[in-house]
Each structure stands twice: as C-alpha cells, then as structure tokens.
User: Fold these one by one.
Assistant:
Number 1:
Amino acid sequence: MNFIIAGVLAPLAYFLLRLFFKSLVMSFLDKAKAQSGVKEMVSCCSCGVFIDKNDAIKKSDQYYCEKKECLSNV
Ligand SMILES: [Zn+2]
C-alpha cells in the first residue's frame, strides 16, 4: 500500500512543487520586467495607491489617481 502512496503522491508533490516554483519564477520575472519599464511611481494623495507618474493627475503639487472619488476630494 505504501508504494502506491509513494508512487502517486511523490510525482504529484513533485509536479505541484514544480508548478509552484515555476509560478514563483514567472511572477518574479514579471515584476522585474515591470520595474525595468516603469520610470517613476507616485502614490495617490487620496487613496494611497501607487500609479505611474505619467498616468497620475497632478493638482496643487500632489498626485491623484484616476478614480472619481479621489479627484472629487481635491
Ligand atoms: Zn486615489
């Protein structure tokens, strides 16, 4: 019985571990790619979310995201 468990669970565990590490590496690569592409990030003064400086709306020396509720607070 044990060899069945080992024969089924071990490859399954190996497969899941590989999947896990692969997604880990992929997300790491995605992050590195995103960081190399983005020049400057600013945080919204209203909700604190980080946005690309190019996409941010600047009002009286403070940055805001595109959300309606954030802009209406200005
Ligand atoms: Zn905001």
Number 2:
Amino acid sequence: MCLLVRFVDSHLNSISHILIPTVNEMKLLHIDASILGDNSVSRRVSDAVVARLREAIPNLDVTYRDLTTAPLSHLSGANVASRSANMEHDQALQEELSLGHQVLEEFLTADIVVIGAPMYNFTIPSQLKAWVDRILVAGKTFQYGPTGPEGLAKGKRVILAISRGGFYGAGTPNAAAEHMETYLRTVFGFIGIPAPEIIVAEGIAVGPDQRQKAIEGALQAVANLRAA
Ligand SMILES: Cc1cc2nc3c(=O)[nH]c(=O)nc-3n(C[C@H](O)[C@H](O)[C@H](O)COP(=O)(O)O)c2cc1C
C-alpha cells in the first residue's frame, strides 16, 4: 500500500505528488459463533483478544464475521458438485457460491484469525461448522499428495477463544466427551496450522463464582498473549 503525498516545490514554484510505500498492513479475521449475545463468554474473550492485538499491531486491518446474525447455510450437494462439474447455477446457488468464495477469501488473506468458539452439545455450534465447511476446500487450504493430505494454509496465526459449561481437561471424568477443542485442533492441523493458540474459559455453567474466575483467567491469558 502507498500514501499519495502532495508537496510544494519552492524552486519550481509548483505542486507535486509522490507515492510513499507504507508498512504492509496485517490482516485479522475475527469470527464469533455464540448464540448468547451479550451474555456470551466466548464473545467477550474473542473481543479482548482483538483489542489486545489492535493495541500491539499498528495498522491492523480487522474483518468481523458474526455467524449468528449472518449465518451461512449448510453446505449443499449442488455447491460441492459445482466445484468439479461445469454446471448451470440457479440464482440461489450462485449467491451461495459467491458468499462461500467471500468467506474463503477472508480466511486466505488473513494473517491472524481469532475465533470465539462456544461448546454446544460437546462440540462446536453448527454455525461454526458451516464456516469450517467453507474453509476446508481442496486445492485452496489442503491438497492430497503422494504421502497423503498436505495443509496449504501454513503461516497463519490462529487464536481460539473457547468457552464451555463444564470441565474437560485431561484426567477429568468428561475428558473423553470433549469434541470441540480437539476437533478444532484437527481442522486447523489438517490445513497446515498445527499449533493454534487456545484460551479456555471453562466451568461457566457451574456457578457465578466459577464463571467469574474462568472469565478472569481467560482475560489474563489474553493479556499474556504475544504481541505479534
Ligand atoms: C445449547 C447449549 C448447549 C450446551 N452444551 C454444553 C455441553 O455440551 N457441554 C458443556 O460443558 N457446556 C455446554 N453448554 C454451556 C456452554 O458451553 C457455556 O454456556 C459457554 O459459556 C458457551 O459459550 P458462550 O457463552 O460464548 O455462548 C451449552 C450451552 C448451550 C446454550
């Protein structure tokens, strides 16, 4: 990106313009998926992550996508078929395809991706699954080679702000029922991002004291995030 600068040349007594290159902007994609609006913990924590990075990174260009106010449809058979066949698109499919293209481009062009991810029924909300279905696209974010799948989205920083009602840490009775953090690790690992940074607020449904403690712990983890 360049800045157009206007200056007066006193020798020639004229006005000139020059282009000065600026430092490249970092792009951040912020996704929220909680249905609980202002009462959402994952939204609060993902907001704090973005605020922290805005503070730390000059010229951060943030794109926000709320998957509950503007939900993506379930991936349709026609959508998948249109990727490999030269077929007619009716208007509904055309709109679905161009929204999917926009969602994928947002992801591909982002340097940093921040996702507010609540646990619903042991896994991610279906709104977030519809987004994942637009991101995992062969030839764009992964490909199959002679040795198996290879991720193509390497180099992005992904930060997951996770909230869940109970406790699912290693060694807890519910550990085997955790299909959300493990699922998201698999998704991002598959496309070449093996180590997303994960901030967890858990025990949210246990009671007000634990909720408060979990939120404070998560916000402290946000404050400790590396700047860039
Ligand atoms: C529909 C629904 C399903 C839920 N299912 C689970 C669950 O399976 N396990 C769990 O620990 N908490 C569950 N919870 C509690 C949420 O994980 C908890 O409220 C968390 O804070 C949700 O994130 P949010 O506040 O950002 O929406 C559920 C909550 C809702 C609304």
